[in-house]
Queue: 2 jobs
Job 1
Amino acid sequence: MHIERLDAEIPVGEAIVWALADAGVRYVLTLPGGYVGPILDALHDHPTIRTVQVREESIGTAMAEAYGRLTGEPIAVLGQGQWISGVAGAGLLESLLGSSPVLVLTEMTDGGPFSHNGNFQAGDGEYGTWDARTALSGISKSVMTSRFPAQAVQHVQLGLKHALSGEPGPAVVIFHGSSLKGTVGPATRPRIYGSRPYLVRPRHSVDELALADAVDALTRAQSPVVIAGNGVRVAQATTSLARLSAALDVPVMTSAGGKGVFDETDPRAAGMIGMNGLASAHDLLSAADLILAVGTKLAPNDTLREHPDLIDPTRQVLIQVDVEPLNASWTYPVHHVLEGDAGFVMDRISDAFETPPTRPVSATERIVRARSAWHEFDLATFESDTVPFRPERIIRTLEESVTDDAIITLDAGENRLFMMHWFRNRRPGGYLQPAGSGQMAYSIRAAMGAKLAFPDAPAIAVCGDGGFSMNLHSLLSSVQEKLPVAVVIFNNSSLSWVVHAMGDRAVAGDLMDVDYAAVARSLGCDGVRPASVGELRTALEKASGPLERTFVIDVPTSMETTFKDVEVRSLLKRQETSRA
């Protein structure tokens, strides 16, 4: 690789933007403020980096998180220190827990020579100030503080490296005011080089003996399954997963974080496991003699809090593939650990099988048999014509209306639980939910991030009316920045998960009955409130096509269906019945 050096004396802000561009960063999301003016000045009319204004810092970090998870590449969020720390934390938290590469560039409004006298808004940690580094370190993978110009440029490059290395996550660079003043050039020490050599390259290696042992175990297994997690999406390895399923003729189920990494209409798709997973998937997992876990930590919510009738390493062989060694044999002892890039390792496994191993029952037939006991996708409520609409009916109509290339993004709340359980995603990798942090107000921002990543694909945000009301200013950014997304609101005038959980003694669970379609139209969006199944279908078909403006579908939603209808109903329920 050719190593370039900065060969001219230029302002430090210009050098930082040069470093971003050389790394291939395409977008900087910002709400201007504080001391970041020199960077913004260098971004003016930049030929390769688009600057996007967001109406609040949390919009920027959520957009960047979704972009990073969809593409595997970081983009930058730029803003003033106290608002990055105090407002943008939700996106950083999802990036940290969801392993998405994000670069945050901020400052500490330190006050220069008056830093030690409690300067207004200062965050340098001196007496009378707040501490930017401490505030951000708890929700970031790495935090670096720059005090010199050359250091600021190198920290940006190292921030990109840290965001991408091992298990990806958010990297933060905090600029002291002194680091953004002056120039850097050929005589600067430390020397400033191009960014590309700093970037992490995929780890295309695996322990060959461990691989051979794992292949032998897969060959001998009679009823194996694959559990695919969010790590498959992070590694951009959905194609490798599809190839693996065919090579092994094995059912693929996903964790909550991994939902959507495999085409859920594929005959080998077993669906999602976990607290809101499919009963049939739990039955398949319980009966498996071998589990190949790829890019999943096998966290408690996915394993029903380590229920032994679901996963038990004393009766099942476990193979775990992960790029981060700490994730392997973390929640369960694992027989075969394959450390490395998920796509590379899955391809090496597939290469070992010219034809699928001979097994008593095919993967497709195993799934058909498991599903026949539960009737999970043929409920009468999927065809209900009642208004307000049943959530099941909204989901089935959405599923029938979306195109294969659509990207679906979710919020927290009951609507997310219903979608996890009943919606079958077709675009591998194109389904994003805040599975790491479980935050509301994520869906529209994530859809806007998806629109940056894939401008020609429909981006459809699904949320409740509680989450939508937190997202109104996101609509302003989508209109101003010409990022048209569709929004489907499950509007039941309540925080329904709260109301259904608390019952007759619910507190602070009711919401105003608001015509959000009218609100959206007042902000420059299109908006409708369907009053029949036909109108709902027409709106959802429009949402799946090219949009000139952001399109809000405010769907009156029934409270009849509750989160209890999509809770675990397989082996745990049968055990409770037998004990009774």
Note: The radius of gyration is 25 Å.
Job 2
Amino acid sequence: MGGFLLFNAIRLGFFLTTRALCFYVIPMQPQTPVATPNLSTSVNESDRLASQTPKSLSTAGNPVLRSWGKMGLFLAVALILGLGVYFTYTMRREQRNQASYEALYLARTGLETRLKTIFEQRESASDKASKGAESQISSQFDVEKELGKELVAFKTVESTYPKTYGAFQAAMLTGRLFFEHELDSTKKNERALLHFNSALSFARDQEEVAIASLNSGMVLEAWGRCQDAIKHYEKSRVNTMMWLQAEAALGIARCEKAKPSNEVSARAAFDKVIAAYPDTTWATQAKALKP
């Protein structure tokens, strides 16, 4: 599609430029009528015949052609400048996106390495403490203390490449880190919501808006702020993919169930999920959670 538009834009620019050159830059020369020489014709008579050449054939004598020539030249120059600005902007945007991908990749690689080290150390310490007995390894820890360097790397991606895929994913990953691993429950919800809202500000399309809103709704639901959670869930259902709509609908049903003395509305909300998404994991969850 982009190649087709570019090809036609170039054709239009060429057409306008050639028309401008024909009508303005290189005006047409008047054509004198060819006549058989007549020695008896006087000089005055020859001058009179020459003066009868139609002026409409010359741009110098036709203001309409001159104005069209000027307009064509102006449009051609404007089109060329516009295409130059557009392609320069597009190229720089793609370069920023590519740079954000690379920075995000490095930050994620560092995070994965650090998380692996943390859990290996915890597993080793748990084995020594339990001395062969079965034990569970907690995935909760002080995120800011254990992952300080990694959090800075994600923040750098956000501040260096705002409004890019890299910035959006960096904010989302930071929010998920706090929501899934933070030991302090208050800090967990506050920090997670803060970073999901940052991701929302970096969103470039409706799908990213829906993803950030869905995660914000999940945090608010876990926090017990169901009315606020429902608002975010509703936002994530607008013009987006089916799985996002289903997750949001299930979240709304859970929030309705959490409200006191609201069994009728909760049952209706779960029934909507079952009817809208039959034979799916969301319908199965709705049947299990339905009061």
Note: The chain is about 75% helix and 0% strand.
